[in-house]
Amino acid sequence: MLKTGAGASLQPFLAMEVVRAANARQAALGPGDPRIIRLEVGQPATGAPALAIEAVQRALTSGLPLGYTEASGLASLRGRIARHYRDFYGTTVLPERITITTGASGGFLLAFLAAFDPGDRIALASPYYPPYVNILHALGMQPVVLPTDASSRFQPTVALLQAMAETGQGLPDGLIVASPCNPAGTTLDDGELAVLARFCHANGIRLISDEIYHGLNWEAPPATAAAYSDSAIVINSFSKYWSMTGWRVGWTVLPQDLLKPVLRLKQNLFISAPHISQIAAEAAFEATSEVAANMDRYRRSRAHLLANLPAAGFTDIAPAQGAFYIYAGIGDRSYDSIEFCARLLAGIGVAATPGVDFDAVRGHRTIRFSYCGPEADMIEAADRLAAYRDS
After folding, report:
1. Ramachandran region of residue 57, left (φ > 0), alpha (ψ -120 to 50) or beta?
2. Contact status, residue 242 vs residue 48, Cβ threshold 8 Å
3. Do the Cβ atoms of 253 and 51 come closer than 8 Å?
4. For the whole model, what pTM was predicted?
5. What are phi and psi of 329, to 5 degrees?
6. 38 - beta bridge partners?
7. What would the pLDDT profile of 141-182 be if each residue is shown by its tens digit?
8. Domains of the chain and any CATH numbers
9. How many Å is the Cα radius of gyration of the chain?
């Protein structure tokens, strides 16, 4: 028998499995059948900003070879990102600390490989973004899940880390935070993030701050870990706020001691992020009015679903402070979120992601809705879900 590696036993990212199932169901629909409404994944209905597309069109006809860039990325893009930190957060981040990545996913891989060794323990709050756990497992590292609840808005706290130490487990080697988080949509405020960042720095815990949903904040401006810790790794991308999921371009802000390790990893694993995507990303920063219009649409869709989902039977909803997700309990209707979501897709053509993707223990009683699709679809989804409850 041929050998297979440990990676062959990884759990799937269930949201992507739902995407596949919804695509298949859509393709099998007959004429006149109601189409599938997509609430299963954070795929904005809009594509890349028009200014980004125009920049790409110019580049494609310019005669430039659009070959490799330096592994750390185009100097002009790194400089533009540094300006973003100054303008958006009021924080100074030197371009030399920024590396362009193949989306946030590439950033996580680089960060984990540079900061940790196989066997290291990395803590994260539950519910969580599934690839955190799956990538760590693939690299032989140990995710340590902190079972959070509504009392901490599903975010990690210093008290939870201290409790780990007091129970003999010791402090973790790393901590992943996400604010706004996926799937719960909750946030850490300025003070909470500062306390966590300083605790991690003082106790030798490498903090990794996932800031991919920054800008999609509905209650208070986002805070960046770069403002509070020189040892933290910040990960961001153009996928969500700038609606550029398929372009696979993001960035990391790195501490001084990881600059050269990440550069070497990047040179060997990826060479560089796609040149054309970097050009698009730099232009996207100037698309302020288009991005603002997207934000207005998300805000209306969020409000509509929060107002109407309770009438459809979803009364247990996590505070949707940011991102574009609603994490809802279904414990009074089902104890099997995979089966429940399959029923929604088959019965009313609404695709949603089972909560067990985000919480292997408690997620059987939750599901996640994404509201970044077309605004009309959010209205139609609420209507179908309400009718399904009454049927």
Report:
1. alpha
2. yes
3. no
4. 0.94
5. -80, 145
6. 351
7. 999 999 898 888 999 999 999 998 888 889 999 999 999 999
8. 10-48+289-387 (3.40.640.10), 50-287 (3.40.640.10)
9. 21
